[in-house]
Amino acid sequence: MRTSKPPVGTYVVDTRSGRVGVVMGHEGPYVQLRPVGGGREWDCAPDGVRAATSGERLRAATAYENARSRGEVP
Length: 74
Known about the structure:
Layout: E1 11-14, E2 20-27, E3 30-35, E4 42-44, E5 49-51, H1 54-69
Antiparallel strand pairs: 1-2, 1-5, 2-3, 3-4
């Protein structure tokens, strides 16, 4: 089981949901993540995240830009 907390600013995958997020901070035992492109933060246990691959980062950024171009997000 992995217990170290990833550094702020790194891209990780929440293994519970499969969502890609940026590490915004650490609060108590949790890692605080924010979706690529912004949005509401969520908490995840440190052993529930792993480093995102470059493909996963690109996929998340592309999904955000597509949603923005359709007017679904600001």
